[in-house]
Write a structure and sequence with these properties.
By secondary structure, this protein is mostly beta strands. The protein contains 1 helix and 14 strands, in the order H-E-E-E-E-E-E-E-E-E-E-E-E-E-E.
């Protein structure tokens, strides 16, 4: 029994740094927005472990590249999942682009993430396309958290809000590297709600 308790505590401590893929979890609804772009393909669905919900997020963002270089802006979204007690955490991430760095985690003061909004740049024709640039989440306590993405494009409408306890998973649409073409990386997201 003492050995099992020690293992649980160790997993709770290292769980903050482990990417857990639990795709078999049942979800109640899927949140979408209307302004996502359509380049690339949808990645895998990645769900918080059973009993956990997303209370925070971080982003993979490529900062503006000066000159005539190719900007990709938002490359990835990572959800940080916790139990109600917030004793331990795990993170989930679907498909993500290759460029940029992960930002610091933004946490709901209490409760869980409930809805999201994307900042997206429309197609630029012969210009440099970036697609999704930033994301906002609203928390069940009413707080709105804005990511540390870039400023191109416009904020679209909010998704509907989770009717269950909160957000529990993510699936993202990401364009693979284009070689000498125009890279956009992350284009759109689907967010899952659980009871």
């Amino acid at each position: 029994m003492h050995h099992l308790l020690s293992m649980f505590l160790l997993l709770a401590i290292i769980g903050q740094h482990v990417n857990v893929q639990a795709t078999g979890r049942n979800y109640k609804s899927v949140l979408t927005v209307s302004n996502g772009m359509s380049w690339g393909s949808w990645g895998h669905q990645d769900m918080c472990p059973t009993g956990m919900y997303a209370a925070g997020f971080s982003l993979r963002v490529e900062s503006h590249v000066s000159g005539d270089f190719d900007d990709t802006a938002l490359n990835g979204i990572r959800l940080h999942c916790v139990y109600s007690s917030r004793v331990s955490a795990a993170n989930v991430v679907s498909n993500a682009g290759h460029w940029g760095q992960w930002t610091d985690i933004k946490w709901c003061p209490s409760g869980f993430l409930k809805a999201f909004q994307l900042r997206v740049e429309s197609a630029q024709g012969n210009g440099d396309d970036t697609a999704a640039n930033n994301i906002r989440f609203s928390c069940s306590d009413g707080v709105v958290l804005t990511g540390d993405g870039t400023g191109w494009g416009d904020w679209g409408d909010w998704s509907s809000a989770c009717g269950g306890r909160g957000i529990c998973g993510i699936k993202t649409r990401v364009e693979n590297p284009q070689g000498n073409g125009d890279d956009t990386a992350l284009n759109d997201a689907r967010i899952y709600c659980c009871e």
